[in-house]
Amino acid sequence: MLLPLVLLLSLPGCLSIQGPESVRGLEGGSVTVRCDYKPRWDSYRKWWCRGAYWELCRILVQTTESQLEVKGDRVSIGDNRSHHFLTVTMEKVRQDDTDTYWCGISKSGPDLGAPIRVTIEPEGTLLTTLASMLSRRTTNGRAGVSSVSYSRNHYILLVFVKVPILLILVGVVLWLKGLSNESLST
């Protein structure tokens, strides 16, 4: 019974910095991730790195004590110390950007980190178009732009795709049943 709690507490930074579990984006677009941290870490450097294991991941961009916003090649990071969160934006994303990334805090001893699975989908499919439209509309949320939209994508797809298809199928079945009833009566 205590094992899940022990495992949770053993994860690096699990209670000090938190981000969304996963985010999705469209190829060619941008992905924004928000990671919240405890106030005690305000003055520390923040970083964004890529790799399945945070101890071995490659830092793509990081803040300094004096530079709270830093822009790399296609990645930027901003540290909002007054509200205790950092924002990472990946621009012109490609499908090969799909990977595990980490929001992190540099400190003496082991750094603190929170893993985020970033998935980049090919442009042009109905699913990704709806996901993109939704992610642009849901910009406030503690977990980040795309993770909020991802949890709502299912409902959007349910309402605008699955329910109409189901209604069409029910209509076709009723129509065919009506045709068979007419042929039996004649």
TrEMBL record:
Q: Which Gene Ontology terms cover its molecular function? A: transmembrane signaling receptor activity
| Chain's gene name | CD300LB
Q: What is this protein called?
A: CMRF35-like molecule 7 isoform X1
GO CC terms for this protein? Answer: plasma membrane
Query: Which residue windows are transmembrane per the record?
Result: 155-176
Q: Report the locations given in the UniProt record.
A: Membrane
Q: Which SUPFAM superfamilies match?
A: Immunoglobulin
| A Pfam short name | V-set
Answer whether the UniProt record assigns the keyword Transmembrane helix to this protein. Answer: yes
Q: Does the keyword Disulfide bond apply?
A: yes
- PROSITE patterns, A to Z: IG_LIKE
Query: What keywords does the record list, in alphabetical order?
Result: Disulfide bond, Membrane, Signal, Transmembrane, Transmembrane helix
Q: Where does the Ig-like domain start and stop, copy by copy?
A: 4-119
* Cleavable signal peptide: 1-16
Which Gene3D superfamilies does the protein's record reference?
Immunoglobulins (2.60.40.10)
Q: Which domain of life is it from?
A: Eukaryota
